[in-house]
Write a structure and sequence with these properties.
This protein has 140 residues and is mainly alpha-helical. The protein has 5 helices and no strands. The protein is globular, with a radius of gyration of 19 Å.
Length: 140
């Protein structure tokens, strides 16, 4: 049976697709970290100033972790704001870097974190794929 009135599909521009992928990535980062707070002993460790495998929450560690989350947060905006040629290569580079970071953090991870990490890696690889397949403008 064919649909006589198919729904119209919105054809999002590449920049919007990349922005949506980074937003979804950031949600997974936030929720993965949020659910980690429910692990037994986690709050006690935080109250003692410890950040899991990173050790003591020194100003340097907090700065590094902050910087690592600022970059994908900025990619949400930069994917829309940068010129396509710059945005393309920045999305490829940052997408590959964050795919590697996520994979490296998955060693000995809890099942919930493996799920979030797998989705994060898929999303950042989708960023790379989308950026590499950026359509070119037809020459007049």
């Amino acid at each position: 049976m064919t649909d006589r009135n198919p729904l119209e599909a919105f054809k999002a521009p590449t920049q919007l697709k990349l922005t949506a992928l980074w937003v979804a990535t950031m949600f997974c980062y936030v929720y993965g970290d949020y659910f980690a707070l429910y692990r037994p002993g986690r709050m006690e460790a935080m109250n003692k100033g410890m950040m899991g495998p990173l050790g003591e929450a020194t100003p340097t560690v907090l700065l590094a972790v902050s910087a690592s989350m600022i970059v994908p947060s900025l990619m949400v905006m930069l994917s829309l704001a940068l010129k396509p040629v710059v945005g393309r290569w920045l999305n490829v580079a940052v997408g590959l870097a964050y795919t590697a970071i996520v994979i490296l953090t998955m060693k000995n991870a809890q099942p919930y974190y493996l799920l979030f990490g797998t989705v994060d890696a898929a999303l950042t690889l989708a960023v790379v794929w989308t950026a590499l397949r950026w359509p070119r403008t037809a020459l007049a």
